[in-house]
Amino acid sequence: MTLSITEDIRSITDLKRNTNSVLDQIHKTKRPVVLTVNGKAEAVILDAKEYEKITHAFNLLKLLVPAEEDISAGRYKEAKAFFKEFKRDKKI
To answer: pLDDT tens for residues 55-66?
Structure first.
């Protein structure tokens, strides 16, 4: 989802005057539109399905944080050693 600076940055005034056009653009391109006030970014409008995808991906990434912390702290085992111990403990 690459932002096009010539198409995806619009003013609030433009949104007010051309709401349907802006929404059509968002749905067609699947890119967010950055809304500006006095030339400064103020808000971002995003297609609802794209928002859901981003939220889902973000939630999956949050699940990885504890695993990354365990690795950084050295709390892990090599797979070969883990499976050897697992098989021994489960008498497999």
So the answer is: 999 999 999 999
